[in-house]
Amino acid sequence: MTAEAFYTTQLQAGLGMTGETLDLLHLWQRGDDATRLREKVVASGLFSRATARRARNLVMEMFAPRFLAQNGVPAARMKFLAEQKLPTESLVQLFFLYTARAQAIFRDFVTDVYWLRYSAHSAMLRREDAELFVRRALDTGRMQKRWSDSTIRRVSAYLLGCCADFGLLGKAGRSQRAIKHFAIRPDVAVYLAHDLHFAGLSDMAMAIHSDWRLFGLDPQDVIKQLKSIAHDGHFFIQATADMIQVSWKYRTMEDCLGVLAQG
Questions:
Q1: For a surface tag, which of 5, 12, 92, 242 has the fewest beta carbons within 10 Å of its beta carbon?
Q2: Closest by CA position to 22, among listed 91, 70, 106
Q3: What are the residues whose beta carbons fall under 8 Å from the beta carbon of 253, sequence distance 6 or more?
Q4: CA-CA-CA-CA torsion for 120, 125, 127, 129, nearest 10 degrees?
Q5: Is pTM beyond 0.90 here?
Q6: Residue 243 scores a pLDDT above 50
Q7: Class of residue 18 by CB neighbours under 10 A (exposed 0-12, middle 13-18, buried 19+)
Q8: What is the average pLDDT score of the chain?
Q9: Whole-number pLDDT of residue 130
């Protein structure tokens, strides 16, 4: 197992940190690495009520893994969309996507626990559900070293809190939280489809990619979603039981972002 596959406790630095992400995107400029951004945060007093350690952790452990990968491409895209006033609900779903990509423990909790309870029409998600997930992960070697019981409890709470920050769960409740209706927004579906396409995936690989599972979509659901957004002229799709072919309209991801920014 590679080091990247191990689960970590990084979520403790800020959970979903949606508001902080918008603040950091405003401060970040193309070319800023994590160290430079941290220096700008300290100099600007952006998080004046936070300790220096928390400010550092927000940048180094939360923002950087999510948005400064690929030489800052995700940050550049999110900053552009934020400045162009993409609806906040859509930005939050994109932040959710990048958080799940960066934090394997959160990704797997959403796909393997949250959506299982959601599809079973459960009303609540309990901290015990999260603790069971974490303990099973420990037993299957997903952590570099054994976590203490207190760490297990804390991380379990972080998982529920992060889900609440992104709108999957209700805000109130320590031991359990209400499961909320959660569905991918059309503009986020357009973004994700093009992001996977421009990453070099075939049309079929794009449609069956695991990222869609974060939004509770199986491959057949994805095809329905793609056909729905195709009506807005983003692309043309043909799909059968064993074939998917997409005629893509935009030549670059920047073209796609420009259209999304126009609403």
A1: 242
A2: 91
A3: 77, 194, 195, 198
A4: 10
A5: yes
A6: yes
A7: middle
A8: 92
A9: 95
Separation between Cα atoms, residue 77 and residue 120, nearest integer Å: 36
The CATH code that applies to domain 186-262 is 1.10.10
For 191-207, the pLDDT digits (tens) are: 999 999 999 999 999 99
Q: Where are the domains of the chain?
A: 3-83, 104-178, 186-262
Cα–Cα distance list, 187 to 118, 191, 192, 222, 245 (Å): 23, 6, 9, 14, 20
From CA 57, how far away is CA 93, in angstroms rounded?
Answer: 22
Q: Which amino acid is it at 124?
A: M
Which residues contact residue 188 at a Cβ distance below 8 angstroms, ignoring those fewer than 6 apart?
90, 93, 94, 97, 215
Burial of 248 (0-12, 13-18, 19+ CB in 10 A): middle
